[in-house]
Every structure is written in structure tokens, then in C-alpha cells.
Amino acid sequence: MNKPLMPKATAVWLVENTALTFEQIADFCGMHALEVQAIADAEVAMGMQGRDPLVAGELTRDEIERCSADPEAKLNFAKPNIPTAQVRQKGARYTPVAKRQDRPDAIAWILKNYPEVGDGQICRLIGTTKATIDKIRDRTHWNSQNIKPQNPVSLGLCSEAELEKQVNLARARTGTVHSG
Q: I want to staple 11 with a disulfide (CB 3.0 to 4.6 A). Which of 3, 29, 46, 141 is the partner?
């Protein structure tokens, strides 16, 4: 359920500046109707500065007028007109120093469980180099005797969604179907 940024201050403004019912205000602000009634009776939030949801972009004047005319209607949040942040796709993935020692384990796990995933995909997913992947695959890595394959998701090196996306891309490219 969406709530305004400052629910009580928004409720104060709506009580003072609109003809909405307590239930409508309470539903919009995520409060109880009795709490809104206490605000209207000046028992709660005395002296609190109201916050205008119109200025904040949470409501529109048309929405307030629509709900003022119909006491049974519910206030709906205004659609934000600010652009949403894009997911960053390019560039090297930063791995904290404490987790860098886990990379070889994650690479070994991917090579063992999903051999169809390409080296470039593993590089993007884990944030490593193709040389490291080749050394782990050939067991010539300097620490190869201590490498224990572990899921990169449980190690915190990537998310489950990122791993699934790369595996599905690799399967689509190679035409393999996972049995299990």
C-alpha cells in the first residue's frame, strides 16, 4: 500500500483544506479514521504544519474534487511524472575486498552446474576476467586445491535474477534444456 511521505502532516493539510471524509483521508494516509478525527478536533498534531500533497505530486486537484463529490470514493495516488532510474548495465562490476576471495568458488560452481554459460557472461555476472576463468577451468589457478564450488547468489556476488537471466540466455543460444 502506498502512503504519502509524511502521513500525519498530509492528513493535517487534507483536514484543513478539503471536504474529504475522515475515512478517505485515513485510507489515503494509512491511518485510522479515529486518528484523523482527532487531528480534526485538534486533539492530536496540534501546531503541526500541514504538508500539501498537491505540491508533493502525490495527489491532483481533480482527484480531490472527485472524492469530495463522492464520499465512498477512494483517493488514488497521482502518477509520478519524474523519470525512473535505469538499471546500470555497462561497466565493470565492483566486488568488495572481503568477497573477492569468493570469486573462484563462484566461478567453479557456475562452470560445474551451468557449462553452457559463456566466459563473457561469467565475467559480467561475477566481475572477473577470462584469464581467471580459464585458470579455474584448467585447474592451474594458484589456489586451485582450496577452491570449493559455491553458489554465487549465496556468496552475494550476484542476484538470483541476474544468474537466471544469464543461464537462460546461454540455454537459448546453445539450445540446451536443463534437467533437474
A: 29
* Residue 133 Cα to chain centre, angstroms: 31
C-alpha span between 152 and 150 (Å, rounded): 6
Predicted local confidence at residue 95, as pLDDT:
82
In SS3 terms, 28-61 reads as: HHCCCHHHHHHHHCCCCCCCCCCCCCCCCCCCCH
Which of 59, 70, 29 lies closest to 37 in space, CA to CA? 29
Cell of 39: 487531528
pTM of the model: 0.51
Residue 7 in grid coordinates? 502521513
CA distance linking residue 64 with residue 25, whole number of Å: 10
Interval 137-171: pLDDT, tens: 999 999 999 999 999 999 999 999 999 999 999 99
Looking from the CA of 23 toward its CB, the CA atoms found within 13 Å total 6
Cα gap 126→117, rounded to integer Å: 12
What are the sequence ranges of the domains in the chain? 7-69, 97-174
Query: What single letter denotes the amino acid at residue 125?
Result: L
- pLDDT of residue 1 exceeding 70, the answer is no
**Given this model, what pLDDT does residue 42 score?**
87
Residue 89 has pLDDT above 70, yes or no: no
